Amino acid sequence: MNAIQISKLSKFYGKTQALHEISLAVPAGDFFGFLGPNGAGKTTTIHAMTGLANFQGGDIKVFGNDVIHDYRKTRALIGFVPQEFNFDPYLSAEQILVFEAGYFGLPKKIAKARAAELLEEFELSGHRHLDYRKLSGGMKRRLLIARGLIHQPKVLILDEPTAGVDLELRLKLWDFLKRLNEEGVTIFLTTHYIEEAERLCKRIGVIHHGRMIALDTTAALIDQLGSHVITLRLDRSFEVVPEPILRFGVELVKQGGNMIRFRKDDERISDLFKTIHAQGIGITGIETEKTSLEEIFLEMTKST
Ligand SMILES: Nc1ncnc2c1ncn2[C@@H]1O[C@H](COP(=O)(O)OP(=O)(O)O)[C@@H](O)[C@H]1O
Ligand SMILES: [Mg+2]
Questions:
Q1: Residue 297 belongs to what domain range?
Q2: Do residues 134 and 31 share a domain?
Q3: List of residues 6+ apart from 48 with CB closer than 8 A
Q4: Does 260 sit in the ligand 1 pocket, CB within 6 Å?
Q5: With a 6 A CB cut-off, is 82 part of the ligand 1 pocket?
Q6: Ligand 2: distance of its center to the CA of 36 in Å?
Q7: 209 and 267 share one domain
Q8: Which of 11, 113, 164, 251 is the most buried (most CB within 10 A)?
Q9: pLDDT below 70 — which residues of the chain?
Q10: Are residues 70 and 184 located together in one domain of the fold?
């Protein structure tokens, strides 16, 4: 079962097309990363899913329900954490949570109990009666996430929840999201921090200029687009790579140094080692290095 299924979603702002037939599916229980540079169309896509933006083409289903025809049902299945704070300024942290619960039809008593649990979880209990405007930036951010969870949604959609957040809180949020996902909540996380996507997400979709340019598991994306680089430390230094070794596309890490580097190629690796050995050169160290999602991402967004 797909928690989210977007098919050929197109969106125009006036005459400008912001989304070009976006398609993606997020299986139930997944931790999905929606990655793209500023202006790519991430927020627009999320707003289409949550009923905050209309769209001109395609459709979106949440656990099989259409977000337009079954709006109330799909909205109740989704917890939404927006990019910007959008609280009523005159409410306290607790009131914000209880009001939100009311919006989803939770009885007052249950709402209060649930709010207390979330305030505790997000270390806001001591500030629950404080006017929201008096909370620190980090507290507001935590409250925003707590609010998204008040009705125990099956999918949590977060729009850049860690943008501008300090490292300590970021690490805490990562742990929290991991735990939530392990408890069965499907997570759709928007980010432009590649490290975040690489660390947390099982699958990643990359959007650029309103078009999906990649969609795969995190591992496959790194594997397929990235390549492993192997560095060998030799028992002597070289000004140039000896001819027989050069054939393998080997290069010196630094001229006059004893390190050489080549792109991993399973079929040729043993031949390379034999050739080095036949030259009477010893290998004293070996290191492999994986291309990061960062490099892949730069590569992909450069060419389109
Ligand atoms: N309300 C709006 N009116 C007109 N254009 C908009 C509006 N919101 C977003 N856009 C444009 O749509 C594109 C996608 O924006 P957005 O979805 O906010 O990107 P992201 O969240 O990936 O940074 C951008 O070119 C942006 O300028
Ligand atoms: Mg955005």
A1: 228-303
A2: yes
A3: 9, 11, 19, 54, 55, 60, 67
A4: no
A5: no
A6: 9
A7: no
A8: 11
A9: 224-228, 266, 290-292, 303-304
A10: yes
